[in-house]
Design a protein that fits this description.
It is found in: Membrane. Keywords: Antiport, Ion transport, Membrane, Sodium, Sodium transport, Transmembrane, Transmembrane helix, Transport. It is built from 20 helices and no strands. The protein is an all-alpha fold. It has one domain: Up-down Bundle (Na+/H+ antiporter like fold), CATH 1.20.1530. Helix 6 packs antiparallel against helix 7, helix 6 packs across helix 9 and helix 16 packs across helix 17.
Amino acid sequence: MNLFLEILLVLLLTRIFSEGAERLGQPAGVGELLAGMALALAAGFLGTSLPFLKEITTSEALGQIAQVGIFFLMLLAGIESNLNELRQNYKGSVGVAIGGAAAPLTLGILLGWAILPESEFKCVQAMLIGISMAITSVPANIKVLTDFGLLHSRIGQTMVAAAIFDDVLGLFMLAVLTSMIQTGGPPDLTALAWLVVKILAFFAITVSLGVHVYPHISRGLKGLQSAALEFSALMAVGLGYGALAEALGMHWILGAFMAGLFFEPSRVGYKAYHEINLIAVAITRGFLGPFFFASIGLHLNFDVVVAFPWLILIVILLAFVGKLLGAGLPARLAGLNTREAMAVGVGMSSRGAVELIVLSIAAEAGLFLQGDGDHGLVTHLFSALVLMGVVTTLISPMILKRILPPALPKRVRNG
């Protein structure tokens, strides 16, 4: 099938599904993921009579476009993260973030250790399950909180800041996972210490450049009044940071995130920030992002629903329980009442782009093809974890609406 027709079909289908998802109160990414799943199902049922559907599911060109989409998704995630709000709410949010990551991470690792077949990759695969459960979706949280008018309340800022910290923790764990994929097992004490040193060095370099160097470059470009030059500079920083991350043994998506994180209005100017933000949003959400989400759905194996239904149920249950207890209890200890703390735990249960990015990296490294033997469980693990992310993202807002109905007490609204 002609590449341009493939792109056209995926783009139209993701746009239709994303619009439908947003009308139902769900993030656009969920609709785009469902569009990929619909194409995968259509290829399975109609692939013989309509071979071009099979070609789409195996298209290398679409896969490369999806890889570029990952870069822009992480760049935009950094741009839309607010460092000031993180600083203001860090006390309560750090506990919620650590608990909300540690509990599901532990449950996921224990689950993997209990059910996965013995192999030299078992430890890495169990770690992957834990990391997939530990991550929280920032965009999904913001959408629900905005709908309820709670985004800038205490509960809203606690949840968003904790979700951002969770994503940062997820990226840190991704660095550990990348090292484990390369070595096939957990790093020893010396290797772990060296990895921590490299991670700290990466953050020290990128933070220093973001605080002290990039604002000077941006001010120099400001006189030229060119959004194109400013955007090119941001891209160069993201690519440079990505190259630095890979040189230090981490994944390049860390570079894209850090480049966006320090692209703040106070550092680069409000005019430049809003112009570049509009460009990044248009490119990411209008074109490249949908291809990434669709590509994940295209590679789902729906046989897992028949072959291992218990796996899907257990993964979803532990993912919810881990976030509810891990994030809800610290929120209660931070001063929120029981209802608000439950809302934080449920809201933190949504997964999103970072989880899918981690899974796509693991799939690209062949982690789901290792040590399966005659079980078939590892082969279906990718689809089970993606379905967990989709289900938790779909259900969390529905439960949250039960916990926080429209008629909210004034104290809850204002935090």
